[in-house]
Amino acid sequence: MSLQNVPFPESRSTPQLDDDWEWQDLDQFDTAARTRALLAVKDLIQHHPAAVMDHDPDWLYTKCSHDKSVKIFLCFARDGSLSGYAPFFVHPSSLSFELFGISLWEYRICRYSITAGPLLPGKVKTEVIFLKLFDYLWKILQERETLFMLGVELDSSFGRFLQNNTNLQKKYRLIPSGQAYCRRLVTLPESFDQYIQGLGYGTRKEVRRILRRLERNPEITINYRIFTTSEDISEFLPLAQQVSDKTYQHNLLGLGIRDDIETRHILAIAAENGWFQGYLLIFDQKPVAFQHGYIYNGTYYAEQTGYDPVWGDKSVGTIVQIYRIRDLINRGITRLDFLYGDNERKRSLSNRYRMERNFHLVPRRFPLGVLAYALRGFNTLSQSGGDFIEKWGLKSKIRRFLRKWSVDRD
Question: What's the Cα-to-Cα distance from 319 to each of 179, 201, 356, rounded to whole Å?
Answer without folding.
Answer: 29, 17, 27
